[in-house]
């Protein structure tokens, strides 16, 4: 039987796994890019992709790639400009702890300690705010990361790469806690990179079935049959109705009232961090770019259901998607996705 999931990041196998992880990331990015281009032209498919992306792994983080946040700036670039900029100092000659880059046990333990501490904090942020308030999630997370790194490493170094590395590791660990993990072997067919684990969804929705898995038998990888809980969640669009011209006009006015205070908040935020010149301008522009009021041409209301393999409805979601040019985007300013975080019992 599979072991319970461990929340920690194991740095001990990081070097071995790096090339595999990179390859997987590149494949996933390619698939996502193609899928996004295709779904963007259909309000139903876009909404389904958004809801399904969150419910399958609790990944409200990547769901923002199909929302209005990403309309005028790539999502990662927005996060850099709006949240990371005040803390990044890798170009300022700030020294890292002496053990960084050594591959030593001390470095591995430091990575584990930061990632594990931040994972607990990340889960708390999800429970308190959820990604519907991404501003609170990112603001609090990166401020805490600086503090935790200093306490563990004893330095004040911070880079975009390090910040993304910690955050995205926590996102993936959270996903694994829901879906469980399969045992992954290195190319030598005997070194286990990732252990098998049972996720929350398997416990909540799984039916016991015989499945083939890779296992270490007599010191070598072999395929064996085990009984494990198997589940399947499906997102279905139950309705999609484009608003009338008058309704759309009223909706856009309401959207404008919601987004303008946010879009205008960049300067005050930059000043609070003491940013100057180009650094300040980038933050101000990042927030200003959130306002898409003048670009929206159509609005549609969409409803979705999430069902188990037995047909039971475990979540419903209502959202609005807006059309800009030929593409549709989820309006993230007018949504409550708490029902999609099923394991939290919302």
Secondary structure layout plus pairing:
Elements (H helix, E strand, L loop, with lengths): L2 E2 L9 H26 L3 H15 L2 H4 L11 H10 L20 H24 L5 H20 L6 H20 L4 E2 L6 E3 L2 E2 L1 H6 L1 E11 L2 E11 L3 E9 L2 H19 L2 H8 L3 H12 L9 E10 L5 E12 L2 E4 L16
Parallel strand pairs: 1-4
Antiparallel strand pairs: 2-3, 5-6, 7-8, 8-9, 9-10
Helix pairs in contact: 4-11, 5-6, 5-7, 10-11
Strand order of the largest sheet: 7-8-9-10
Distance between the termini: 29 Å
H/E element order: EHHHHHHHEEEHEEEHHHEEE
| Relative strand content | 15-25%
What is the averaged pLDDT score?
90
Q: Could you tell me the radius of gyration in angstroms?
A: 22 Å
- Number of helical segments? 11
Main sheet overview: 4 strands, antiparallel
The shape is flat
Low-confidence stretches: 1-36
Number of strands: 10
Helix content: 40-55%
Could you say which structural class the secondary elements and strand pairing correspond to?
A: alpha+beta
Features:
single chain, 346 residues, alpha+beta, four-stranded antiparallel β-sheet, two-stranded parallel ribbon, 47% helix, 19% strand, flat, disordered N terminus
Give a summary of the structure in a few sentences:
The chain has 346 residues and is α+β, with helices and mostly antiparallel strands. It has helices at 14-39, 43-57, 60-63, 75-84, 105-128, 134-153, 160-179, 200-205, 245-263, 266-273, 277-288; strands at 3-4, 184-185, 192-194, 197-198, 207-217, 220-230, 234-242, 298-307, 313-324, 327-330.
């Amino acid at each position: 039987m599979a072991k319970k999931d461990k929340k920690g990041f194991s740095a001990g196998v990081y070097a071995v796994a790096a090339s595999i992880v990179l390859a997987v990331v590149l494949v996933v990015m390619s698939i996502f890019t193609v899928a996004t281009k295709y779904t963007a032209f259909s309000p139903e498919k876009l909404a389904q992709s958004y809801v399904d992306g969150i419910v399958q792994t609790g990944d409200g983080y990547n769901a923002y790639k199909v929302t209005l946040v990403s309309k005028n700036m790539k999502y990662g670039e927005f996060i850099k400009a709006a949240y990371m900029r005040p803390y990044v100092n890798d170009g300022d000659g700030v020294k890292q702890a002496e053990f960084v880059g050594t591959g030593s046990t001390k470095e591995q333990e430091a990575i584990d300690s930061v990632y594990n501490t931040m994972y607990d904090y990340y889960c708390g942020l999800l429970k308190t705010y959820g990604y519907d308030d991404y501003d609170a999630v990112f603001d609090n997370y990166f401020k805490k990361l600086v503090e935790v790194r200093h306490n563990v490493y004893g330095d004040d170094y911070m880079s975009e790469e390090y910040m993304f590395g910690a955050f995205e590791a926590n996102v993936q660990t959270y996903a694994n806690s829901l879906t469980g993990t399969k045992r992954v072997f290195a190319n030598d067919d005997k070194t286990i990179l990732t252990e098998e684990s049972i996720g929350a969804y398997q416990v909540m929705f799984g039916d016991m079935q015989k499945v083939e898995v890779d296992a270490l038998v007599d010191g070598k990888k072999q395929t064996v049959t085990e009984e494990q809980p198997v589940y399947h969640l499906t997102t279905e669009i139950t309705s999609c109705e484009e608003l009338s011209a008058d309704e759309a006009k009223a909706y856009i006015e309401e959207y404008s009232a919601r987004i303008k205070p946010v879009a205008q908040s960049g300067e005050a935020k930059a000043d609070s961090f003491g940013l100057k010149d180009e650094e300040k301008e980038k933050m101000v522009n990042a927030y200003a770019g959130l306002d898409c009021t003048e670009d929206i041409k159509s609005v549609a209301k969409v409803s979705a259901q999430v069902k188990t393999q037995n047909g039971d409805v475990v979540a419903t979601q209502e959202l609005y998607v807006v059309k800009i040019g030929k593409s549709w985007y989820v309006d993230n300013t007018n949504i409550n996705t708490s029902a999609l975080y099923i394991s939290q019992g919302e």
